[in-house]
Amino acid sequence: xxxxxxxxxxxxxxxxxxxxxxxxxxxxxxxxxxxxxxxxxxxxxxxxxxxxxxxxxxxxxxxxxxxxxxxxxxxxxxxxxxxxxxxxxxxxxxxxxxxxxxxxxxxxxxxxxxxxxxxxxxxxxxxxxxxxxxxxxxxxxxxxxxxxxxxxxxxxxxxxxxxxxxxxxxxx
Length: 172
Description:
CATH superfamily: Neutral Protease Domain 2
Radius of gyration: 16 Å
Number of strands: 3
Helix content: 55-70%
Structural class: mainly alpha
Number of domains: 1
Shape: globular
Order of helices and strands: HHHHHHEEE
CATH class: Mainly Alpha
Strand order of the largest sheet: 1-2-3
Number of helices: 6
CATH topology: Neutral Protease, domain 2
Oligomer: single chain
């Protein structure tokens, strides 16, 4: 199902769970400007679950460290996850972190409820980033997700979580 290379440390490849990633695609079908983030970010997040289950917490931590290194090296502040229409590693690397942060913000139970709701809605019709935010608000009513911006290219969009944490989906 997945593989962590046994090669010596100097030539070791990234911790990945390719089959888990592809199975993750079965659960969601994002639409709108954030379609690639909703599809690929979710699938990459699912990889982390598979790695933790199959190889343990340390392998999952390695996965997230490598993911963060790629994001900060290649994308931080340079490209927008919402306005980039072609499918690039940005959607995988930043998108998966957004799902991880959402889980930490609302807790595991509410996260599962919200993602189950989003999965059902996305597979039965068009489901955008706004649909995802609505699913989280339904799963955890005190989740105060506010999306700032009217959808114009280059406009900043901020999601506020209970006035304690912000994460940016888009940059000016």
